C-alpha cells in the first residue's frame, strides 16, 4: 500500500515548479503558484515554513488540489512511495 511521503514546503514547491507552476505572489509563508495551460489559469497555494515537514493532512489537501490540474498518474510518484 502506498505511503504518503514526508515533504517540506520547499520540496513541494520544487515538484510543482517542475510541472510548470511559477510563483506569482507571496504573503508571509504562503506562496501562490500559477501556470497557464490552453489560455486557462491554474492556481495553487502552498505554505512554506522553511524546511519543516508539512503535516500529513495538509499534504493530502495539497495533493488533492494539485490533482485538479495534473493527472494523478504523473504526480502520485512525487507524493507517495510505492
Structural descriptors:
two-stranded antiparallel ribbon, 82 residues, Metal Transport, Frataxin, Chain A, globular
Please characterize this protein's 3D structure.
Strand 3 (30-37) and strand 4 (40-47) form a beta hairpin. The protein is an alpha+beta fold and 82 residues long. It is 35% helix and 32% strand. The chain has helices at 9-18, 56-66, 72-79, and strands at residues 3-4, 22-27, 30-37, 40-47, 80-81. The strands form two sheets. The protein has a three-stranded antiparallel β-sheet, covered by helices on one side. The chain has a single domain (3-77), classed as Metal Transport, Frataxin, Chain A, CATH 3.30.920.
Number of domains: 1
How many H/I helices?
3
CATH architecture: 2-Layer Sandwich
Distance between the termini: 7 Å
List the strand order in the largest sheet: 2-3-4
CATH superfamily: Hypothetical protein
Helix-residue proportion: 25-40%
Helix and strand element order:
EHEEEHHE
Shape: globular
CATH topology tier name: Metal Transport, Frataxin, Chain A
The chain-level mean pLDDT equals: 95
Class per helix and strand makeup: alpha+beta
Estimated share of beta-strand residues: 25-35%
What's the level 1 CATH class?
Answer: Alpha Beta
Stretches with pLDDT under 50, minimum 5 residues = none
The radius of gyration over CA amounts to 12 Å
**What's the count of strands?**
5
Largest sheet: 3 strands, antiparallel
Amino acid at each position: 500500500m502506498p505511503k504518503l511521503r514526508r515533504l517540506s514546503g520547499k520540496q513541494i514547491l520544487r515538484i510543482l515548479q517542475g510541472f510548470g507552476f511559477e510563483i506569482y505572489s507571496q504573503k508571509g509563508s504562503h506562496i501562490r503558484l500559477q501556470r497557464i495551460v490552453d489560455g486557462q489559469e491554474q492556481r495553487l497555494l502552498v505554505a512554506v515554513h522553511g524546511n519543516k515537514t508539512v503535516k500529513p493532512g495538509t499534504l493530502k489537501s495539497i495533493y488533492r488540489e494539485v490533482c485538479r490540474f495534473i493527472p494523478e498518474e504523473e504526480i502520485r510518484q512525487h507524493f507517495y512511495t510505492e
